[in-house]
């Protein structure tokens, strides 16, 4: 019974993807269109480019080691920096009306600027390289974390804060023990959205200013008209996005299990 439920849940989640893949295979095999290869050929290209290495290297090729290490390092560094900054600034403006009124116009202006339009500016300031790519990712993904944190902090039950004041709990302790834990569900939601954006901006920054990484591999394949390699890169990005989202949701459920339990008790 315990094994059957996870298997059934997995089947309910992936059946549409499997059906779409089968339809894609049948249609593209029948049409034989160069620009839209069947999934079987894309998987072969994916294996050849990144997963045909020796077993001692977890079957990763030299390209895979270079591309994944570069891309994932930039992605998670930019995402972590944006997460830290977003939580800090969001908590500050969420708890201070004066600070919110002062910074809100600037933040709304910066949030409205599409990150791709700032890539030329970042290249001029930071030059092409790792710093430029990390800054591009961090600037683009900080907003979901910042805004969700501010909303979560504002929504903390005033009764909890008043009780903490009565018992003489200091402001730093109130922030760490009451405010941030209460806002944690919204903070985690912002971090999860930011992780998806980080993957997109990682590719963008590599296309513009890098010779290594999955984005650079995509650009090289497009320039050389290697369509199978290009499609393999697109599929690889989709798989990474799926894995990141699934792993983050599992982590979120574990870390916020106490919050779900507290809500059940309250209700």
TrEMBL record:
Organism, per UniProt? Actinomadura physcomitrii
Q: Which Gene3D superfamilies match?
A: MetI-like
Subcellular location per UniProt equals: Cell membrane
State the family named in the UniProt similarity comment for this chain.
Answer: Belongs to the binding-protein-dependent transport system permease family.
Record key words, sorted? Cell membrane, Membrane, Transmembrane, Transmembrane helix, Transport
- Asked if the keyword Membrane belongs to this entry, the reply reads yes
Which cellular component appears as one GO term in the record? plasma membrane
Protein name in the entry: ABC transporter permease subunit
Which GO biological-process labels does this protein carry? Answer: transmembrane transport
What residues does the ABC transmembrane type-1 domain cover?
Answer: 68-252
User: Origin, by domain of life?
Assistant: Bacteria
Q: Name one Pfam family in it.
A: BPD_transp_1
* Topological category with respect to the lipid bilayer: Multi-pass membrane protein
- Membrane-crossing segments per the record: 118-146, 175-208, 228-251
Q: What is the lineage of its organism?
A: Bacteria, Bacillati, Actinomycetota, Actinomycetes, Streptosporangiales
The record's InterPro entries line, in alphabetical order, gives: MetI-like (IPR000515), MetI-like_sf (IPR035906)
């Amino acid at each position: 019974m315990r094994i059957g439920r996870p298997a059934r849940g997995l089947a309910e989640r992936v059946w549409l993807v499997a059906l779409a893949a089968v339809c894609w295979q049948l249609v593209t095999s029948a049409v034989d269109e160069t620009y839209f290869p069947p999934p079987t050929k894309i998987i072969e290209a994916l294996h050849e480019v990144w997963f045909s290495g020796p077993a001692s290297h977890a079957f990763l090729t030299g390209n895979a080691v270079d591309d994944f290490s570069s891309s994932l390092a930039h992605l998670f560094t930019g995402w972590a920096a944006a997460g830290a900054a977003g939580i800090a600034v969001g908590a500050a403006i969420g708890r201070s009306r004066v600070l919110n009124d002062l910074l809100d116009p600037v933040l709304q202006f910066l949030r409205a600027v599409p990150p791709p339009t700032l890539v030329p500016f970042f290249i001029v300031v930071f030059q092409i390289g790792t710093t430029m790519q990390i800054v591009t990712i961090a600037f683009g993904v900080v907003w979901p974390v910042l805004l969700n944190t501010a909303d979560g902090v504002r929504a903390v039950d005033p009764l909890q804060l008043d009780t903490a004041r009565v018992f003489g709990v200091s402001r730093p302790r109130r922030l760490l023990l009451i405010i941030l834990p209460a806002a944690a569900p919204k903070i985690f939601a912002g971090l999860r959205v930011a992780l998806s954006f980080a993957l997109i901006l990682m590719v963008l920054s590599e296309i513009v200013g890098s010779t290594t990484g999955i984005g650079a591999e995509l650009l090289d394949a497009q320039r050389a008209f290697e369509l199978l390699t290009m499609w393999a890169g697109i599929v690889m990005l989709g798989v990474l996005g799926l894995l990141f989202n699934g792993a983050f949701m599992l982590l979120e459920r574990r870390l916020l299990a106490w919050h779900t339990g507290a809500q059940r008790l309250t209700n």
